[in-house]
Design brief:
about 70% helix; single chain; about 250 residues; mainly alpha; globular
């Protein structure tokens, strides 16, 4: 008895599905690329007098001192006292986008429902953070806290970490920390994808933002309260994305 011949229509259907997913992927790439481009252009266009972000930073430092959260200088000194950790910290700070892209690609192909929710949250984050940067420009510790060493500027083997002399709002966007926000987003999306399929592995992605918190503080790029702002930004963005999902 011979096996039935395969139905050629099944192969055509599979090809159409693959083609459709490919074109949807191109569309997603264009959407995210456009959002990133708009974010970058608007962010770069927000120039301001150095005195405003410096004054905001001094006020934030005073608040942190009152709350006993002023640990940035001590953490920066700890890192500079351990030179073997400097370059790993610089790479961790610089290469965060690899995790961001990796999570997007992985969830798009393996967890499409999680991807759609995560993409919405990402777009909301970009939309919400620009008005904050415009309203509350903030000078980072590496510019406004005496004694802090600009670790990334001094040791980065990848591109340039702009010095204060170049000016511009891009340098004065410490509140909130987008490095921390991106890493929190990555952890949340990866956790969402893993919690049903691999629940034992689900907590592991949260190590990424923990490492980023340590990195941005020790390298002199952010204050503790900047990180609180990042957590609020991600929480609001995820809530907005979830509400949109439930509404549809």
């Amino acid at each position: 008895m011979t096996d039935p011949a395969p139905d050629p229509r099944s192969g055509d259907l599979l090809d159409r599905v693959r083609s459709s997913r490919l074109w949807r992927g191109v569309g997603e790439l264009v959407l995210l690329g456009a959002a990133l481009l708009v974010f970058t252009l608007l962010h770069a266009a927000m120039t301001t007098d150095v005195s405003v972000p410096t004054a905001n930073a001094l006020s934030l430092q005073a608040l942190e001192k009152t709350l006993h959260l002023d640990v940035e200088l001590a953490m920066n000194r700890w890192l500079t006292d351990h030179p073997a950790l400097v370059l790993p910290a610089v790479y961790y700070y610089r290469l965060y986008y690899l995790a961001l892209v990796g999570v997007l690609v992985w969830t798009y192909f393996r967890h499409p429902e999680v991807y759609r929710k995560g993409r919405r949250a990402l777009l909301v984050m970009v939309a919400l953070v620009l008005p904050v940067y415009w309203a509350v420009p903030m000078s980072p510790p590496r510019f406004s806290l005496p004694g802090v060493v600009d670790v990334v500027a001094q040791h980065s083997p990848i591109g340039n970490h702009a010095p204060q002399a170049t000016g511009g709002q891009v340098l004065y966007s410490a509140m909130p920390s987008m490095h921390t926000a991106w890493s929190l987003w990555c952890a949340y999306v990866a956790w969402s994808a893993l919690r049903t399929s691999h629940p034992r592995l689900a907590p592991l992605p949260w190590l990424f933002p923990l490492g980023m918190v340590a990195t941005v503080l020790t390298t002199g790029n952010h204050y503790v309260l900047d990180l609180v702002g990042s957590a609020v930004l991600v929480t609001v963005s995820v809530a907005a994305a979830s509400a949109h999902h439930r509404g549809h």
